[in-house]
Amino acid sequence: MTKISAYAAQESGAKLERMPIDLGELAPDQVEINVSACGLCHSDVSMIDNEWGFSRYPMVGGHEIIGTISAVGANVSHLEIGQTVGVGWLSQSCQSCSSCMGGSQHHCRSARPTIVGRYGGFADKVRVQSIWAIPLPEGLDPKSAGPLFCGGITVFNPMLDFGLLPTHRVAVIGIGGLGHLALKFAKAWGCEVTAFTSSMDKVEELKKLGAHHVVNSRDNDAVGKLKGRFNMIISTVNVNLPWFNYMSTLAPQGKLVQVGIITDPMPVPSFSLVSGQKSVAGSDTGPPATIATMLEFCARHDIAPQVEYFKMSDINSAIDRLKSGKARYRVVLTND
Description:
The structure is a single chain. This protein is α/β, with parallel strands linked by helices. The protein folds into two domains: about 200 residues, Medium-chain alcohol dehydrogenases, catalytic domain (Quinone Oxidoreductase, Chain A, domain 1, Alpha-Beta Complex); about 130 residues, Rossmann fold. About 25% of the residues lie in helices and about 25% in strands. The strands form four sheets. Strands 3, 4, 5, 8, 9, 16 and 17 form a seven-stranded mixed β-sheet that branches. Helix 5 links the parallel strand 11 and strand 12. It starts with a strand and ends with a strand.
């Protein structure tokens, strides 16, 4: 058995406290990872605060994990002790259902998220099924790479799944932890990129991140002038917006892809779908193969998240920083 130290919330909304946890025996298909850094995501805060109604306590968050393998299960042959890997939202899937067999392990009906009903990466060690421990390619900084495994793959996967082309015009709504990576990816993809933001003080910064154009999302007239322009819109926001206005900016057969979690229904008039054969889609995370592809893409194009660092022992201060909305653009905890 392995005893570790982790930062856990004992109840909904509680401050995180350090506590010992027994991980039990290492399963044959698992690897054990010494956590060196872990991103802090809004989903971690949602789970700590039980916003989605299925958190279990003590709750140990952390699903943007970077570390080195310290032990491998008896059936693991493709990973080695000492290898640097990353782990994202998911850490287990059945490997036998049609989704898994078809390469969409993230859609496995029995897939287990890293922080739902198990202990995540706000700890000195973590255990995951070996296929979800993705080797980090040369050229990526392990200290800052963690957010790629959730925020990064969340915006990268729909670019592949929904056929984004280098000749396309793409817009990103909400330039935060996910949105800033979407700008970088779309620019490297070769697209013409527009950023919709309510923070117009960030115009020059957003252009450096990859936006060719920056539009005030609160200016309905400015949005209206873009009618029929975009082949794809990636929305990272978690609140409802005047979707009819944004649907009007889509070109025929354009897609609005929602990746942020909006708890209320999205009011999208059917006319805005029928006219021009447009669509609204959702996207969550991605399978191990796509995560590996994204990492190679990042290494090739020198793409890294823009992060602020906190020590793991300062995790409650880091959560406060995230909740303030002032972080630019991801928070990473380094183990101390």
